[in-house]
Here is the input.
Amino acid sequence: MATENKHEDFFTENEPNPSETAEVLTEVASPSPKKKSLKKAKSTYLAFVLALCLFCSVLGGAVGVLIGVKISDASLSFEGIARRLSANSGVSLPSGRIADVAAAVQNTIVTVYAQYEQGTIASVSSGVVMYREGKHSYIVTCAHGVVGYRHIAIRTYEGQDISAELVASDTKSDIALLSVENNTLPVANPTTTKPVMGESVLALGNPVGNIGICASFGIVSREQVTMEVGGTPQELIKVDMAVNPGNSGGGVFNMEGELIGIVSAKISEADGTKVEGVAFAIPFSVVYDITGKLRENGHVVGRPCLGIDLSLPVASSSRLIVSDSFADHKEGELMAGDMIINIKTESTSKDFTSELTYAQALAKLHQVISGCEEGDVVMLTVERDGAVKRIKLVVHLTDANTPKIDV
Here is the structure.
């Protein structure tokens, strides 16, 4: 029996409020005979119509079979289609295939709630159960929905509320790993096959945060695109479907019910024009790679960093406060409690004002550091006891022995 861990103080009454068929008509015209009798012309016309009907019936049957065949890889050759026709001969797919896939995967999706202090939910996103180990289940979600918050919990598809812990996160890839003390949650089945353009997919998550786990149907419109998300370039899958902010971290599945990625971002406006259905997912290959490193080391090895641990924000504060320092800084130069207000390199300078959210400020800091190389010198401007100080730090690379770090 699942261990139910209700948190009435966490889940408040104040939760955020929140197939198309194309028909192609082809007109076929037959040239009129010039020197034939009317009777002969009618006879010829009738024969033509009968032949055309026979042809259409055969073609329609073939098309009908083809529609019932799912081509799940890039093999679109005649031989490939023929093999599928042969294999599926006399076998009809169950009606409501999309509904079957949704039913098979819905319990692997959870809603993720985060808050600064207990009492008011500040962030709602989605997550996918990745694996179970010992007494725990582990959930992957988007880092931007959980990083910087003090309290995290999940709600399963069946409505069970469970307290969660942030195991580790990587803001550059926007991936975070959560754990819950419950080893009975269903685990998503991943795929090793890369998605292909035009492939049907299903996204599950909690749009706008208070509706519950919902399904959105669409297609892969491009297998791989490079997009800048939070100031960091990412290789993503472009999907054409309806997703909303609460969908972040939710799963994208193929029609075999296999996880191909997690929802990460969408474009709602381009050059002043509102756009719809332009969404992106982090490929499962990236999710698998990053979560493996987070499990093993608590961070991704080989990334540029300053070795600074940042305190979690108080209430809705956006300020970046130094908690501790792990790099080889000279004693007294960088101290716990220092508030970072600017970072400067040879090529860029970023201010951290109170207008930014914590996540936005952290993303800007990561953007600057990720553009550095090992040995580069950066200048931090910090505020300490009302005085402004400038401190030089050297960029180094994380390794397996580096303690858990933020930047």
Q: What stands out?
A: The longest strand covers residues 214-229. Residues 38-67 form the longest helix (30 residues).
